[in-house]
Every structure is written in C-alpha cells, then in structure tokens.
Write a structure and sequence with these properties.
alpha/beta; 7-stranded mixed sheet
C-alpha cells in the first residue's frame, strides 16, 4: 500500500510465471534463478505475479515458500489475491464470498455441461480448480500429462477450443460482470472484473516505475490488463530465455544507472 514516504526511484521488475520465468508448469532453470538472485543482490526490487495458486507457483520458482520469498520482494499468486510482501501475508480475496453459492454453482454446472459436449484428442480429470480468488477451467483436465498438455495446446491453437469457450461464457454470464482470460496452455481463468493481475498493483504504489514482463499480453490473454495498465511499462516476452535477454537489454549499464550483470548463457 502507498505510504507518505517518497516513491522509490529504483524500478521494480514484475514477472509473470508460466511462459515468462518458466516453461509452463515446469521449474525455473537454475541459470535464470541465479541471474535473478544476482539482480536482487544489486538492489533491484523483484516481484512475481502468477495466476496459479501458491502451491504451484512455489513448486515452479523454488524449493519452498521461504526459498521463493528469499528470491523476490513480493510474491503474488492468483493475480495478487493471495500474496506476500517479504514474508508478511497480504489480505486474501475470496471469489466464493464475492459471487455467492448460487451463482458459483450456476457457473460450475454450465462449464461441466459445456465440457461434456466437447470432443478432444483426450480428456483426463480435474476440469474445475477452485482457488481463493478465481476459478480455473480446463477442457482437457489439469490431470493430463505433460505430453498430453502439449498435444492439447497444439490442438487448441488450430481449433480455438478455449477462445470459443471464453466467448460463450462471457455471453452466458454477462450479468455477473466476470473477466474470462485465457492463460497458460490448457485452461481459462474466471474472476470478478478488476481481479486480474492489475489487482497486485495496489501493493506496489511506493514504486515510481514498474516494469512488467509477460508472455500472454495480447487482448484476451491473462497478462493483457496489466501489460496495458498506465501504471506499468509492459514488455512482451516469448520464453524464459527471452525474459532474461530483455531484462539485460533494457537495464544494461550503457542505458542507465542500474548497473546489472550480463546474463549467463542458457544450456
């Protein structure tokens, strides 16, 4: 939250997780993890905001929650609806309280009926994931293997499964004022309007400049809202390797006072 203290002149670097710091659902590489640690040792404030829950983000970015907190000044999960400043928990928002049980069940029942009509290369389990601040819906099911995830993602790019699903959901539930955002490789996030990744910015008001790095910055992507928000400087990345290169390119010694180290090569 904002305070009476002067705004920090150091830019804060805010990162998405899947597709930005990690290959979707995999762990961050030691090379990138070490690079970020060296940036932080130089005094550069770092933050991360993911759509996944705390357990998944922790698995991807470190060996434990304490390890992840040692790497970032702020850790935001579920778009910032669950988060930490250092090791201090921030207030948690609840989609259950916001929507109420009647509309929650109406939404889930409609989604399950929609998925039942889909014909896909395969279906597994865990089609609905209930999180504190959002619902995550996956046509293939989050229990799919990594190989099945890649196969579905390719099929989805060709047939627009998630795009069509998101469009129909927006029409069906226009009365609930929900945001429907396509994220990652296999799922769609649904949350009350304003509970996208810009939600985390309320905790970063002490920073004069916030650079956001994300991969799904196109309209309809779950990084779009924070990417175009006037409070951030948006950077579109294509991979963790590209993230590392862009951080160095934008903050290299020749371009300003923040003397960052050169990135090590990826193996």
């Amino acid at each position: 939250m904002s305070s009476s203290a002067p705004l920090s002149k150091l830019p804060l670097l805010l990162f998405d997780v899947d597709g930005t710091l990690t290959v979707p659902r995999l762990r961050m590489t030691p090379e990138l993890g070490d690079y970020l640690l060296q940036l932080r040792a130089k005094g550069v404030p770092l933050a991360v905001v993911g759509g996944s829950d705390l357990k998944k983000v922790t698995e991807q970015l470190g060996d434990s929650l304490e390890d992840v907190q040692s790497r970032f000044d702020y850790v935001f999960t579920e778009n910032g609806l669950v988060g930490f400043k250092g090791t201090t928990p921030l207030p948690v928002a609840s989609i259950q309280s916001r929507l109420g049980e009647r509309d929650l069940q109406r939404l889930i029942n409609w989604v399950l009926a929609y998925f039942a009509r889909l014909e896909l290369p395969c279906k597994r389990g865990n089609f609905v994931e209930f999180r504190s601040g959002m619902l995550n819906f996956s046509p293939i099911g989050r229990s799919c293997s990594y190989e099945e995830r890649i196969e579905f993602n390719a099929y989805d790019k060709e047939h627009g499964i998630r795009v069509k699903f998101a469009e129909e959901m927006r029409r069906e539930f226009a009365d609930l004022d929900l945001e429907v955002a396509i994220g990652g490789q296999i799922s769609v996030d649904v949350f009350p309007r304003g509970w996208d990744k810009t939600y985390c910015l309320r905790y970063l008001e002490d920073y004069e400049t916030i650079h956001f790095f994300g991969d799904r910055t196109m309209e309809g992507g779950n990084d779009h809202a924070i990417f175009v928000d006037p409070r951030t400087v948006g950077h579109t990345v294509t991979s963790p390797e590209d993230t590392r290169e862009q951080v160095y390119e934008d903050f290299c010694p020749a371009r300003g006072p923040h003397r960052l180290i050169a990135p090590p090569p990826f193996h």
